[in-house]
Amino acid sequence: MATTGVDNLSEPPRAELIVPNLAIVRRLEAVGFRAWPAASIQYDGSWQIRLTAGHPSKRLNSVNPLDPSDHGDIEIRVERAARRFDAYDRPLVFRQSPLAPPQLEAFLDAHGWRRFDETIVMAGAIDRLDIDGGMDYLPVRDIGRYVDAAITVHGRDQSLKAGLAEVLSSIRPSSGLFVIEDDKTGPTATALCVHDNDMAGLFELATRADARRAGHGRDVIRAALRWARHRGAETAWLQVETANTAAVALYKGLGFGEVYRYAYRVKPGQ
């Protein structure tokens, strides 16, 4: 039997075939945009065009259609978006969630646009998630310290430091920057938790490659969500690529369930 996904975000997720509830998708998309803010946001109808010169994140540099009924003049609007991306020296990327018009998906298919990085958006009621074990960690207050730790843990290039710091400094809702560190080897896991009204979004979740399978990821998630729960958050949510099977299993084990999926599209050859 098909479901509407997590029909009420305070209800436990279910395992049947997911048919997304578009009202819930819209809410999660909105809190997601606030939690990971782009430097430039423009609209072409209901297509949100997000561009950020200082950081290459696809979520910060993509076209995000937000109304399934907004499908007029697709070819003209795609070309118009391409010119905006060219001005930022970015490849044109569409982020296709359940809010994207089917006609746009058909247009991209017909022109051979490649689909990649399918991502699952997961959610769960905080009081039903398994978050009460592990050590307590307080969020760090120094953005620079967190950025250094995140770059190390993710194995990213140091050139991204300024861009990541700019994104984190632009977040308007309350946010907790969590770092698990080892006295000898340095940072081992990081998480960004953004508390937005009754929602708590988890971002930048990572464990250093040589420190995995030791429970650090689970510990930093639990600490972040206990912090959010203390501040009044009732629902936790996160995003994970379908290819990251270990992370998907971890989140399911904590009690998260799938709400919807999205993927990115780029022109052939990009």
From TrEMBL:
Acyltransferase keyword on record: yes
Residue ranges of every copy of the N-acetyltransferase domain listed in the record: 138-270
PROSITE patterns reported in the protein's UniProt record: GNAT
Name recorded for this polypeptide: GNAT family N-acetyltransferase
Protein's UniProt keywords contain Metal-binding: no
Database matches in CDD domains: NAT_SF
Pfam families, A to Z: Rv0428c_C
Keywords: Acyltransferase, Transferase
